[in-house]
Amino acid sequence: METYTSPSGHRYEIHPRVYTRAAGGILEGCDLYDVEETTYDIFLSDRLVTFSNAEEGVEEAIAHFENSGPDLGSRFD
């Protein structure tokens, strides 16, 4: 687990989650095979508030969560 402190001073916990999914198949013209991928769950005060599909996108996901605009909130509201 890592932490990230946003410019607004909030401290987020970043939890990487590794999972396996099937890839290949008829659309790729090969047999199915397993692919390991990682997503990053982002918690604030022990509450899951958003996520990122790449480590490089964690900062952007948090910025969007904190400044989502008038019509958007957390992906988990």
Secondary-structure blueprint:
Layout: E1 2-5, E2 11-25, E3 30-44, E4 47-52, H1 58-66
Antiparallel strand pairs: 1-2, 2-3, 3-4
| Main sheet strand line-up | 1-2-3-4
Shape: elongated
* Secondary structure category: mainly beta
Look at the structure and give the mean pLDDT: 89
Low-confidence stretches: none
Largest sheet, if any? 4 strands, antiparallel
Strand fraction equals over 45%
Number of strands: 4
Secondary-structure element order, N to C: EEEEH
End-to-end separation: 24 Å
Helix run count: 1
Q: Helix coverage percent of residues?
A: 10-25%
Cα Rg:
16 Å
What can you tell me about this protein's structure?
The chain is mainly beta and 77 residues long. 12% of the residues lie in helices and 52% in strands. It contains one helix and four strands, in the order ββββα. It has one helix at 58-66; strands at 2-5, 11-25, 30-44, 47-52. It has a four-stranded antiparallel sheet. The protein is elongated, with a radius of gyration of 16 Å.
Quick description:
With 77 residues, the protein is mainly beta. The protein contains 1 helix and 4 strands.
Relevant terms:
four-stranded antiparallel sheet; mainly beta; 77 residues
